[in-house]
Amino acid sequence: xxxxxxxxxxxxxxxxxxxxxxxxxxxxxxxxxxxxxxxxxxxxxxxxxxxxxxxxxxxxxxxxxxxxxxxxxxxxxxxxxxxxxxxxxxxxxxxxxxxxxxxxxxxxxxxxxxxxxxxxxxxxxxxxxxxxxxxxxxxxxxxxxxxxxxxxxxxxxxxxxxxxxxxxxxxxxxxxxxxxxxxxxxxxxxxxxxxxxxxxxxxxxxxxxxxxxxxxxxxxxxxxxxxxxxxxxxxxxxxxxxxxxxxxxxxxxxxxxxxxxxxxxxxxxxxxxxxxxxxxxxxxxxxxxxxxxxxxxxxxxxxxxxxxxxxxxxxx
Length: 316
Fold this sequence. Notes:
By secondary structure, the protein is mainly alpha-helical. The protein has one domain (2-283). It has helices spanning 2-22, 28-46, 55-78, 84-91, 94-106, 112-130, 139-164, 170-192, 204-230, 235-242, 245-255, 263-315. Helix 1 packs antiparallel against helix 9 (204-230), helix 1 (2-22) crosses helix 11 (245-255) and helix 5 (94-106) crosses helix 7. The chain is globular. It starts with a helix and ends with a helix.
């Protein structure tokens, strides 16, 4: 499910860029308001019998929605002051931050494989976003985008904390996070972008199907899948798998001609994929070896005990 999320978010890099150029250049927050608002309505239609309204659910969904709102808003603001490559890199930096935020939250040191995987992923992200040698970013834009990345990391760990401690279930958390983010974006856009509404021009044949993919795949499905997956996965695993959005986005961008083909982009993408495979496969292999050793030790102890019992019987 998370790999599908990575695909839709990777496609979202291209589709959102096209939507912003075509219709929402002067009102990017309105695009996010439509995106989250339509997704909330879809989730309500699908899960209407499971949606409840109480103080506990509103608290966890509201905090998660506030983090999503802040993360997407700082990403949009940051890219005004920096380059797309810097924005892509510092947005995806949450893959580095999540293990440390989880470490602080749970007071449990991540597996050494996680640190190795994160190192590989950060190297891959560097190549992916700076393969063309771009160094034109602005420190102000980079810091704003990095703040958004921290909010993405906090949202992932917050969702994990709420789900693993049974504070809410994944359906409730998904809906209320998306709904709160929609309301906040709508209010922000109405306050700061309403003067630009008159100049908006939406081309149905060009914009609507792109918006539909972003809403259905990149938001409604994506946040449902993320919260569902977090019931079963650790936060660091979640962030590493979702980091595949960067190589997928780069590949799709090259495929449609948005970016040129670069060897550094290909190598960077392979490094990110290798980081995910390493994080997923190695701990399971190590755990299997440990379990095999314990089974063998138990069999040896059982065999030794049987021999001792036989010797006692003979002596008797």
